[in-house]
Specification:
Blueprint (H helix, E strand, L loop, with lengths): L2 H16 L6 E3 L4 E6 L12 E7 L10 E8 L3 H17 L6 H14 L7 H32 L24 H17 L13 H15 L3 H7 L19 H11 L1
Antiparallel strand pairs: 1-2, 2-3, 3-4
Helix pairs in contact: 2-3
Length: 263
C-alpha cells in the first residue's frame, strides 16, 4: 500500500470515530464519502442551515487537493454558498501536505454557526425590507428635527411673512393696464364663444307691435293724436289702429282665424 493510500485509509477511520456513520458519515467507496454538517450536531439548538461535504480523494492526496462539492445546501442563499466555497478552498490550500478533511469540516461548521439564521419567506423578506426602510425614514426625520432644534438656538435668517406690504412690485412696464385688460377680455370672450363655452348675446329687433305700442304710449303722454296716428289709421281720424299684416307679423293661426271669419 502506498503512503497516500495509507494516509487516506487512516483519515477515513478517524472520521468514522468522530462522525456517526449512517447519519453524519456516508461512505461511498474506499476513496469517496459524504459528511453531513450542521452548526449544532447534538441538537441543543435548532439548525437553520446545513450542507453535505462530498469528498473524493485524488491519487496523491494529501499532497494534492481532493475533489469536493457542497451538496444539499439548506438555508443559505447563493451568495452565502459562494462565500462558503471560498472558505473551503482557502482551508484546503493552507493544509496541503497533511490530512485535512476534519480541519476543513471545522471551517465549514464555524461558517454555518455564524450564519445559522432562519430562512425567511418572500413575504417575511418584503416586510423586513419595508421595516428597514421605515426605520431609515424615522432616522432622517430625527436628524432633520435635530437640525431644526439647532437652528432655533441661533437667529432665524428667514423673516416672518408679512403679506404683500413689504413685497417689491414688478416694474411698471410689466404691469397690466385697464385698456390692455379690456382688449384681452374681448379676445378671451371671442375665444370662449368660438369654443362654445359662452353664448353671444344677440339683440333682437323690435317687432311691429312693439313699435306700435311705443308710439301709442308716447301719444298718450303728449296728449295729442300725433302724426303716427294719421299715417297708421284708416277708419277714424285721430284713432291709431294696429294692423299686424302691415308689419308681416301675421302667423298661420291668425290666417286661419281670418279665413274662418270670412266664411
Amino acid at each position: 500500500m502506498s503512503q497516500y493510500a495509507e494516509d487516506q485509509e487512516n483519515e477515513i477511520e478517524a472520521l468514522t470515530s468522530m462522525f456517526e456513520e449512517g447519519k453524519e458519515f456516508e461512505r461511498i467507496s474506499g476513496t469517496e464519502y459524504k459528511l453531513k454538517l450542521v452548526p449544532h450536531p447534538t441538537g441543543e439548538e435548532e439548525n437553520h442551515v446545513g450542507v453535505t461535504f462530498h469528498v473524493t480523494y485524488t491519487p496523491e492526496y494529501p499532497d494534492s487537493a481532493p475533489d469536493w462539492e457542497l451538496e444539499d445546501v439548506k438555508g443559505l442563499p447563493d451568495e452565502k454558498v459562494e462565500e462558503l466555497k471560498g472558505k473551503v478552498e482557502e482551508s484546503i490550500n493552507e493544509n496541503l501536505g497533511m490530512v485535512m478533511i476534519y480541519i476543513v469540516c471545522d471551517a465549514i461548521k464555524d461558517y454555518l454557526l455564524e450564519n445559522n439564521v432562519k430562512e425567511l419567506s418572500m413575504h417575511e423578506q418584503m416586510m423586513q425590507r419595508l421595516k428597514g426602510e421605515g426605520k431609515d425614514g424615522e432616522d432622517e426625520e430625527e436628524d432633520e428635527e435635530a437640525g431644526e432644534d439647532d437652528d432655533d438656538d441661533g437667529p432665524n435668517e428667514e423673516e416672518e411673512w408679512k403679506g404683500l406690504a413689504d413685497k417689491p412690485l414688478c416694474p411698471e412696464k410689466d404691469r397690466i393696464s385697464a385698456d390692455a385688460f379690456a382688449a384681452w377680455k374681448v379676445k378671451f370672450d371671442e375665444e370662449m364663444i368660438a369654443a362654445g363655452v359662452l353664448k353671444r348675446e344677440s339683440v333682437k329687433a323690435k317687432s311691429g307691435r312693439q313699435f306700435f305700442l311705443e308710439i301709442k304710449q308716447s301719444e298718450k303722454a303728449d296728449g295729442a293724436g300725433g302724426k303716427a296716428g294719421e299715417t297708421a289709421g284708416d277708419d277714424k281720424e285721430g284713432v291709431l289702429v294696429y294692423d299686424a299684416a302691415l308689419f308681416g307679423e301675421v302667423d298661420e293661426d291668425d290666417l286661419d282665424e281670418l279665413s274662418a271669419g270670412e266664411d
